[in-house]
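Homework help board

Subject: predicted structure for assignment chain

Our instructor gave us this sequence and asked us to write out the predicted structure in token form, then describe one feature. I got the tokens but I'm not sure how to describe them. Can anyone check?
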Amino acid sequence: MSPAYTELLHRLKEVAALTSTAALLGWDQETMMPAKAGAARAEQLAVVSRLAHERATDPRIEELLGECESNGQLLADARIAANLREIRRDYDRARKLPAEFVGEMQETNSRALEAWKAARRDDDFSAFEPWLARQVTLNRRKAEYFGAPDGGELYDALLDEYEPGMTGKELERIFKPLREALAPLIAETTESPHQPDLAVRRLVVPPEKQKELNAFVVNRVGFDFDSGRIDVSVHPFSTGISPGDTRITTRYGDADFPEALGSTMHEAGHALYEQGLPRVEHWGQPLGESLGLGIHESQSRLWENHVGRSRAFWDWLMPLALRVLGSELDSYSSEDVYAAVNVVRPGLIRVESDEATYSLHVMLRFDLERSMLRGDLSPADLPGAWNERVRADLGLEVPSDAQGCLQDIHWSMGSIGYFPTYTLGSLYAAQFWEALCRDVGGVEDSLRSGDFRPVLTWLREKIHGHGRCYSASELCTSLTGTPLGHEPLLRHLRAKLDPIYRLDGQKTTP
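My token output:
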């Protein structure tokens, strides 16, 4: 091994130790930190983030990269060459941001998060609006530091952080046919006289029983509790802190236990990806890191929807749910629950939405954050613009900002450019699922017996184990044989919803 390469990896590991410390501080802020510690936590995160950035942009890394990039023996190894390519990308990108700016943004993220929590709790957008305006301004500066790609816009520079190589125009191209196909499908289902009975979702189930069931399920699908844990937060999330430390959070209500289970399975999908990465041997290196948030979201959406909302899954789980949750479930069959969890019902809350309407929530956020970054929409005018879009897209009136533009955590954390990856994840998940079912025989039978190993094994081999060796588009084409498209998702929805709603399947079949 080249001495330059060895030193380079050592330095990256030190950066990873600092960024994982920031991740741990962030997890604590959202789960256990006392309310009055917010100001101090913002300063802590600012310092740690600034130190990590300074180490990540040290000129010595440029020297080591140059030596490695001119070493033909190193470049002959395809994985090392991919590692160096991605290290170079990260380094060149990070150098465009001044350390002081990185610290300022991290401190703002932490303070804005606390302001968002209070504003959402109090249904008071005016209290959060100055922080949102500041986040938009900081993200515009960040995009300007990065620079818009040729022929592109500032939003592309932010999007590239979450989904490398993606642009706003390309998202428009992908989203347009999806929206056009979803609209009539949603209309068919909501207008059908055959509607699922939702009584099972109104059952009151103590959160402690739900926690027991959820922990059992995520352990069964493969989550390693010796390398992770589940906690509660205002907004569910998953974070891979370091090798051997991947954490999930979720939330519970007294009713709608399937919603809490779905949310937990969503985060478990993220966590299974993190636990499947080769992080022990490649910590701090691209080879040990996830491939963009679109692929990350594909893992959460696959486990939440293709597994957790499948008929086979509920055939397996129902007897176990009866034992854990109690006799209240006695009068319901697995078919009843399966239909209820797949109801198409336009709603106000993205994380509680069904598969068919989910992407409409994402596209709304994509359009609004893009408009704010361009300056076409003032942050002060966000509630009105939000409510108008919900009325147009979902046919609903928004009764409060807490159920409207304050519902998501992302903008408080400065994550502009993040939202589109949710729909990209749904598209990738559907395409991967078709490939998985082609490659692995008897998937439905495995799910019905509670054996999730064939699914996880395929994902570990085909996706998790590669780190950032490939781009998302390369990985998608190589695994599925075609570029990313909306047709597999529409086939998935049609196969599920046509029998439930007794539709003819002719109007929106791709």
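Reply (TA_rk): Your tokens look well-formed. For the description, you could write something like this. The chain has two domains: 3-147, 168-501. That's the kind of observation they're looking for.
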